[in-house]
């Protein structure tokens, strides 16, 4: 079965919050190497794991994961502010 | 070291390990060719050492041995998928190898054929040991061969 590649912001969010792979892995209950695979897009998480990650960062699943390449956070924030303003 | 070159190194140790194992399985035939007793001991010693080193490098350092022996509740979802696929492939490969080995063992009972080929009977017992070893290591070999090795980058660091 062919699966689509999922793009994610895990590496950016982890780096932004100063969290190590080991800490994130312990929080979501996976091996730290799995975090590396997720960040590189080499492994698509299950729905349960995706929710665990989104709950950990306190963000919605669709903000962290996407089937299309994700825009940089700064660009997205700028676009949202323009929409609001 | 890049993950790609690390995988090449794992593959190299796997090849060394299985080649050494193949030579050890064929040892009854090799020993027949060596007249000198000390040479026989020397060859056995070198092969056993190479076998031990390659087991440690191919399966120990890479944690491949422990990965395929952990209980499913000790693995995360990616590791479960990885080991499941490796065990499924290993099962298919082993069934073919075992049938071939059984045929070889049946043939080894043919005195006329064995005398013609010059094979010794003890090959059956050594072959069985080789097969047990193969059954134990094949899932690890499959993971080590196919997967890019885990990197330690970013374990403690945040970037």
Primary descriptors:
heterodimer; A: 85 residues; mainly alpha; 434 Repressor (Amino-terminal Domain); two-stranded antiparallel ribbon; B: 159 residues; disordered C terminus
Looking at the chains present, what oligomeric state does this protein adopt?
Answer: heterodimer
The rough form of chain A would be described as globular
Distance between the termini of chain A: 45 Å
CATH class of chain A: Mainly Alpha
- Return Rg of chain B in Å: 19 Å
* Rg from Cα of chain A: 13 Å
Task: Give the uncertain stretches of chain A in residue-range form.
Answer: none
Strand content of chain B: under 5%
Helix content of chain B: over 70%
Strand order of the largest sheet of chain A: 1-2
Share of helix of chain A, binned:
55-70%
Beta-strand level of the residues of chain A, as a percent range?
Answer: under 5%
Helical element count of chain B? 7
Could you state the order of secondary-structure elements of chain A as H and E? EHHHHHEH
Total tally of structural domains of chain B: 1
> Mean pLDDT of chain B, nearest integer?
84
């Amino acid at each position: 079965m062919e699966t689509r590649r999922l793009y994610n912001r895990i590496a950016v969010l982890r780096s932004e919050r100063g969290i190590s792979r080991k800490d994130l892995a312990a929080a979501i209950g996976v091996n730290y190497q799995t975090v590396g695979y997720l960040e590189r897009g080499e492994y698509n998480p299950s729905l349960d794991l995706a929710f665990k990650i989104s709950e950990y960062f306190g963000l919605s699943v669709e903000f962290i994961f996407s089937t299309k390449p994700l825009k940089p956070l700064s660009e997205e924030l700028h676009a949202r502010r323009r929409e609001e303003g | 070291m890049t993950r790609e070159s690390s995988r090449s190194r794992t593959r190299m140790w796997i090849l060394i390990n299985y080649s050494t194992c193949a030579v050890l399985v064929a040892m009854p035939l090799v020993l027949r060719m060596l007249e000198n007793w000390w040479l026989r001991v020397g060859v056995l010693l070198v092969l056993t050492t190479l076998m031990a080193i390659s087991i440690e490098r191919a399966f120990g350092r890479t944690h491949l041995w422990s990965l395929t022996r952990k209980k499913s509740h000790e693995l995360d979802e990616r590791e479960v998928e990885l080991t499941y696929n490796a065990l499924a492939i290993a099962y298919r490969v082993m069934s073919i190898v075992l049938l071939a080995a059984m045929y070889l063992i049946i043939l080894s009972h043919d005195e006329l054929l064995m005398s013609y080929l010059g094979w010794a009977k003890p090959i059956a017992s050594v072959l069985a040991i080789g097969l047990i070893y193969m059954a134990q290591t094949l899932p690890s070999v499959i993971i080590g061969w196919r997967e890019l090795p885990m990197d330690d980058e970013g374990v403690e660091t945040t970037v």
